[in-house]
Amino acid sequence: MANINTAGVDPTKMGVGRAIAVLTSGGDAQAVRATVRVGLYTGAKVFFVHEGYQGLVDGGDHIHSATWESVSMMLQLGGTVIGSARCKDFQTREGRLKAASNLVKLGITNLCVIGGDGSLTGANIFRTEWSDLLKDLISKGKITKEEAKASSHLNIVGMVGSIDNDFCGTDMTIGTDSALHRIIEVVDSITTTAQSHQRAFILEVMGRHCGYLALVTALACGADWVFIPEMPPDDGWEDHLCRRLTDTRKTGSRVNVIIVAEGAINKEGKLITCDQLKDLVTKRLGYDTRATILGHVQRGGTPSAFDRVLGSRMGVEAVMALLEATPETPACVVSLSGNQAVRLPLMECVQLTKDVTVAMSEGRYDDAVKLRGRSFENNWNTYKLLAHVRPPETKSNINVAIMNVGAPCAGMNAAVRSAVRLGIIQGHNMLAVHDGFEGLAEEKIEPITWNTVGDWTGKGGSDLGTKRVLPGKYMEEISLNIAKYNIHALVIIGGFEAFSGALEMVQGREKYEELCIPMVIIPATVSNNVPGSDFSIGADTALNTITSTCDRIKQSAAGTKRRVFIIETMGGYCGYLATMAGLSAGADAAYIYEEKFGIRDLERNVEHLTEKMKTTVKRGLILRNENCNSNYTTDFIFNLYSEEGKGVFDCRKNVLGHMQQGGTPTPFDRNFATKMGAKAVLWLTEKLKECYRHGRIFANTPESACVLGMRKRGLVLQPLAELKEETDFEHRIPKNQWWLKLRPIMKILAKYQISLDTSEHALMEHVISKKPPVHMTLKK
Predict the structure, then answer these.
(1) Where along this sequence does the record place binding of Mg(2+) (predicted)?
(2) Measured distance CA(164)–CA(298) in Å, rounded
(3) Is the model's pLDDT at 134 over the cut of 80?
């Protein structure tokens, strides 16, 4: 970790003499906690503004300084802890004058606003008027010229906190993932009752004029139809919908699910409502139909692990953006693009968001989907691909086999489902291989159909069955069975064994010609240790399991006081789960293999906890990855802490074990697995065309065996041969792991005075240039 960044600035002194105010307008607690703590870490003064803009106008007790302890226990709270209110006063110049006066008196020139597009636009107006407001205040005698000079410029950084995910320029707004958790819980419960009674269910989800929540919900539960504002259905949709519902029933399904966004419209711009759909289905098809409007349930509850990590990452980025801002930099929003933190000019994002509304009102729906951004467009395209119920008449005569390898994890079944269905849509015959490579050798191979995988999206574990066995010793049998079943391509879904097993298969090509077929590996493991991907399917579910357990443990510790919990997480040698759970549960330390530690470090951690017990926060949480150190075991660390903490705190330990591999997949894992499964089969279809020679498939180039992974900003395919160089095979981890850069954030949020390398910050990027020409519809 570099001590000094490129500009030669000590991050712990960056904010000295500066003051930052944090206000939420509908926003989120995680981001507040991170902004406050990182602000304090840089030496700045940090203020809370209670009740949003109203507090800014009213001043007085509404604006007061924030301390380290005042944001403790905030991680597991949803909503906003410092209150939020819609404010008429701030919309008037008079109100903004009062607000400016309040800030100048406190010497606050940096404002961090967490809210939706309305709140952020308000902040920008405030900023552009700032110098005029100061002039008015001087002439009215409200502030002195000296005070005005000291506060001559206002910096503004926004974070988008909105469950609707309707802000252009950002892939995920803070709160969206948590809302999806609430929705999917309800959908899962509803589908079980619908199964029993053979019902059709119509669900309305929130999102105002944005269909994101509805679209992802439809993907994550395999709905029959989704209505979103951005893409009204074609004329005659009523017949099409009824036809699709009856087709689904004919294939043996006992349940129909239709998802409606609250702003869904038809081509004439008239609302499509739950009741309207219920009448249609009941009258035309005579199905027992129920409609449910989810309403404000979606806004509440505990934030998901993804949102906590997102809020913490954005909080750090926001403070850095404020402290690095000059009078010339435009107001910006910090946001996430793929897996990268980015800074975007606030007004360009607001403009884009307005452009979507204009595109929709002018009936340019393709443009509207494009303007929503790549993430939205990918979701829409995947939904459209998988929405067909009628497989094509013409068959491709291609056989694609699909298998799970390694330990089971949540989301494997969702990936199998989308791969199988997309394969069938493309005319392929799909074959299921049970029990991994061993099953391939022992002929546990059978056809798998559209209906077999119908309800697999929400199922945890692996329905195909999975084993850790590698193919090396079975090459002879495997090649015979590939020939016997005429397998032309292979989809391998699994963890590190899937990766190393596929490498063995590629090496076996020299000896066995049958192995010269295209192969694709989809990373699926709770450990997130497969080279070639930032995320693997199943890791998000495991992370949420660990986080909710830690929440309960922290609550227990907060009651008893002076108690430290030591928790062991899975992950093999990979510290991803321990680190990310540390960030999302607010741990004091997370011991991992990748970051070597010794007795001095353990001593420092114990001293740090002893100091912490003198504050109002009398509890500690320590995470330890199962293989972080063979000598410093969980028992050893527990004994050490117990001995050293005598009289100050007592300890408890908890080994989480296999509960981390189970459970129903989270919305993130369902959606991710669905997209990965579909993309993998699309790629194989292209590869098969390339490898077709003289009436047969022959693939032996490095490019014909790839890992499909998420890298920074999108899904990429990388040859196994290339990834081999990036892998530490002894410890089964990639040599370079992106999340290690997040570890300093965890330590800073736990009040360690360490150096944060600020040299790698997000640069300001422009979003407007991506705008499509106004009257051209963009073809896919």
Answers:
(1) 117
(2) 10
(3) yes
Max CA pair span of the chain: 91
Catalytic residue among 164, 166, 455, 588: 164
Local confidence band at 5 (pLDDT 50, 70, 90 cut-offs): very low
What are the tokens at 227? 């209505």
> What burial letters (b/e) apply to 121-147, b meaning 16+ CB within 10 Å?
bbbbebbebbeebbebbeeeebbeeeb
Residue 583, both tokens:
């960030």
Domain 558-657 top-level CATH class = alpha beta
Q: How many CB atoms lie within 10 A of CB 107?
A: 14
CA 321 to chain CA centroid, Å, is: 22
Q: What is the CATH number of domain 177-299?
A: 3.40.50.460
DSSP three-state, residue 372: coil
Q: Yes or no: is domain 19-172+303-357 CATH 3.40.190.290?
A: no
Which pLDDT score is estimated for 157? 94
**pLDDT tens profile 350-374:** 888 889 889 988 999 999 999 888 8
At residue 718, what are phi and psi to the nearest 5 degrees? -125, 135
Looking at 508-595, list the stretches that DSSP marks H as alpha helix, in order from N- to C-terminal side.
539-560, 576-585
Task: Name 714's bridge partners.
Answer: 711
Binding-site entries for ATP: 27, 86-87, 116-119
Sorted by sequence, the CB contacts under 8 Å of residue 172 that are 6+ apart come out as 165, 306, 310, 336, 375
Instruction: Say whether 164 is catalytic.
Output: yes
Domain residue ranges in the chain:
19-172+303-357, 177-299, 399-537+665-734, 558-657
Question: Which runs of E-coded beta strand occur in 268-420?
Answer: 289-293, 332-337, 340-345, 399-405
Condensed to tens digits (0 to 9), the pLDDT of residues 30-67 reads: 688 889 999 999 999 999 998 889 999 999 999 999 98
Helix (H, G, I), strand (E, B) or coil at 293: strand
> In the CATH scheme, what architecture does the domain 399-537+665-734 have?
3-Layer(aba) Sandwich (3.40)
Closest residue by Cα to residue 245 from 219, 197, 278: 278
| Strand, helix or coil for residue 287 | coil
pLDDT in tens, 57-101: 999 999 999 988 888 766 555 555 566 666 788 889 999 999 999
